[in-house]
Amino acid sequence: MNVAHLKSLFLKHKENSLIHRYITNLNIEPLLNDLEKIIDVNIIGKSVLRQPIYSLKIGNGEKKILMWSQMHGNESTTTKALFDVLNTLLDKKTELNYILKACTLYIIPILNPDGAKAYTRVNANAVDLNRDAQDLSQPESKLLRAVFNDFKPHFCYNLHGQRTIFSAGKTNKSATVSFLSPAQDKDCKITANRKVAMEIIGVMNKVLQKVIPNQVGVYDDAFNLNCVGDTFQSENVPTILFEAGHFQEDYAREITREYIYMAMMQSLDYIANNKVDGDLYEAYFDIPENEKCFFDVIIRNAKTDDDRVVDIGIMHQEKLIHGNIEFIPKIVKIEKLTGFYGHKEFDANNLVVLDERGDCVKVNNENDFVIINNNKIALLWQ
């Protein structure tokens, strides 16, 4: 698929009822009610707080792909993109039926509905489900494992979102989309099924470089068998970690959503049309590793009350307030931040930076704005 075609498909099939960052069962249930008239939609289990966990099955091909999103409840961008993909595949006018003839997709749109409702990474028992692959201590973890055992996928898509801190290499380029072909042993060997995952990632990266050049990263592949991706990879199923990251000023993750969609659609097209054997895996190693080089805001050259000149690093804290996600700026570093970048930067020009009370700013302060030379500087994303 070329970029123009992918963009056209996205614009036509974007699920407009799903917007911004707060996506829960309440948001997807009306869509599932409509979808169950045409595809297989089921409640496959319950969360800790007895919320339903849904699955969708589409296609009847021999190549089986298992996808799950919102394992971490506050990582919703890939969930939005999944419904965009579903809308696309179900539209007969797109002439993409070859994907559904070649592939069967088993999708869990929200694995952690309690975490999604509370907008937390963990489930209602404060357990990170992505560290529970071996203990299987949680109902959500047991459910995913049961689906994996019963469905017997040929490919797994582990769908996540990542913080704004990540850069694609040690650069001032944000890692808008990141991937990983997880390790399957402590030596991180490049095994046959890892090569298959790497080949698919290379294909997705190729198309993404045309729209977000130098803004794709890969994660360190240090092995952790407690992670779901590492576990499934260790059982010889090619597994791909997707991470939806930050694009300039896109704190709602609506632009990143499009890039995740493009990557998903490109991968499905590739799997449907090719026997993916991993021979073309080497392109994966052209992708730079993620680094933590960003703050949301940096105020450069600020004068302290003891006459030092420093930089001020600020991160937006995501908080669920009255059913909306709000971004609260919090000062996390006051020091020289050489080698770091801000998604937004200001120069204090060797002047003191004050909070709204007129005091010098301090680490851990939460400030909607600061004052420099009697001018208010808004820190919030607008």
UniProtKB/TrEMBL annotation:
GO terms for molecular function: carboxypeptidase activity. Residues 12-267 form the Peptidase M14 domain. Its cofactor is Zn(2+). InterPro entries: Peptidase_M14. The keyword Cell inner membrane does not apply. Keywords: Carboxypeptidase, Hydrolase, Metalloprotease, Protease, Zinc. The active site is at E243. It holds the Pfam family Peptidase_M14. Belongs to the peptidase M14 family. This is M14 family zinc carboxypeptidase.
